[in-house]
Amino acid sequence: MKINQTVFGGFGGIVILMLLVAITASWSQKKLIDSAEEVTFVYKTKANLNALEKALVDAETGQRGFLYTNDISFLDPYNNSKIQPNNTLSSLKEDLNKDPDQIKIITEIGNLAQQKMQELDETILLKKAGKEKEVRDLVLSGEGKIIMDEIRIRVGEMIRIQEANLVIKQEESTRIYILAQFTSWGSTLLVIIFGSVISWMVARVIMRTIEQAAASISGSARELAATVEEQERIANAQASSINQTTTTMDELNISANQAAEQAETSAQAARHVGHLVMRLSEKSMEIGKMNNMVTELANQTNMLALNAAVEAVRAGEQGRGFNVVAGEIRRLADQSKKSADNIGMLVSDIRLLTATGANNGNEIMRIDNIVTAANNIVLSSQQISLTAKQQAIAIQQVLEAMNAINESAQQTATGISQTKTSIQMLTQAAEHLKSLGLG
After folding, report:
1. Is residue 373 part of a domain?
2. Using CA atoms, how far apart are residues 317 and 227, in angstroms rounded to an integer?
3. Higher confidence at residue 98 or residue 247?
4. Which keywords belong to this entry (predicted)?
5. 349 in a structural domain
6. Using one digit for the tens of pLDDT, what is the confidence trace for 46-93?
7. pLDDT of residue 185
8. What distance lies between CA 185 and its chain's CA centroid?
């Protein structure tokens, strides 16, 4: 369950319970007020009944005083009580209009009170008229006493009813008061218990969530710290390697520049050798031509020799043909001698030209290979020179990249150190949060 759900649910339950307590308290208070009003009503009714009885007694007292003394001043209680019984009876009827039995008794009391007042009025009038005997006979007849006793009986009955009602109302009021007290204290205790349980549950859920979050943060922080330490170690090692690589690249740059210079020197020497080899190739081609001529002359000489042999066989008159053949042979021989001389001169030149470049310059079959090799050397030297220059440029770019990487690695190491410090602070905060949760 989520924290907000637990909090809202728990305190929602407390609010509902408090509302129930408030409703119960309000109901109990209303019942107490109603009971108090009913008790007050009972006391009021008793007071009115007592007031009615007192008014009749006061009226009778004033009547007796007047009859005994013939002093009109003794009629003041009588005069003051003449109106009160009617008002009191009206109030009682209004208050007890929901109870037919008591209304009936009140009506009877009212009739008796009216009869009593009439009896009192009659005796007073007879006294005022000087009719003492009639007054005495009326008083001794006991009519007024009988009426007054009936009134007292009815009033006493009404008071007993009201006292019974008062006992009932007091008992009900006591029960309501006890219920109200029980409800108030019980609901308060229940709110405390329920609130404590809910608070404990809410605190438990919150603390468990905090502990889990703190443990997760702490674990993540430890793992992150280990990772950062490893990254810091790698970054430092990388920075060291980059520094070493930068030093090596600096040395390689120097070596590449030296190689480029050496390649340029080799290219120049190779071009010189190529030029010499080209001259040798030209001479060799002339030698090939001379050799071809010598070969051709040799073949023709052989053919002529063969013809001479044939002619020798024929001898005789036809011998003159040998002179022609011999002359041709001499001519060819001269040409062969000239060619041989030229070949000798060419061979001498070739020996002089190839003395520094080849040990076997006399071998004509290797001249083409020497020319091709010389050309390849020139091309390779040129390629080496170009490559060395490009390599020097590339090494310079690598050096610049290495410097940038080195700077980035140092910044990374600095950032990792700052991150490590932040992680340590995060770990401390997580541990503090965890200790708060456990508390």
Report:
1. no
2. 122
3. 98
4. Chemotaxis, Membrane, Transducer, Transmembrane, Transmembrane helix
5. no
6. 888 888 888 888 888 888 888 888 888 888 888 887 777 888 888 888
7. 86
8. 45
In total, how many domains does the chain have?
Answer: 1
| 21 belongs to a structural domain | yes
Under 8 Å between Cβ of 151 and 53 = yes
Q: How far is C-alpha 279 from the chain's CA centre?
A: 87
Whose structure tokens read 């006399």?
Answer: 362
Instruction: For residue 108, give every residue at least 6 positions away whose Cβ sits within 8 Å of its Cβ, in sequence order, or none.
Output: 154
Buried b (16+ CB within 10 A) or exposed e, 28-59: beebbeebeebbebbeebbebbebbbbbbebb
**Residues of the domain holding 98:** 3-217
Distance separating alpha carbons of residues 122 and 115, to the nearest angstrom: 10
Residue 430 has, within 13 A of its CA and on its CB side, a CA count of 17
User: Which residue type is seen at 284?
Assistant: S
Q: What is each CA distance from 205 to 8, 336, 436, in whole angstroms?
A: 13, 124, 14
Asked whether residue 91 is domain-assigned, the answer is yes
**Cβ-based neighbours of 250, under 8 Å, separated by 6 or more:** 399
Residue 351, both tokens: 């020996």
Q: Is the pLDDT of residue 438 over 50?
A: no
Q: Is the pLDDT of residue 358 over 50?
A: no
Confidence of residue 282 (pLDDT cuts 50, 70, 90): confident
What is the per-residue DSSP string for 180-196? HHHHHHHHHHHHHHHHH
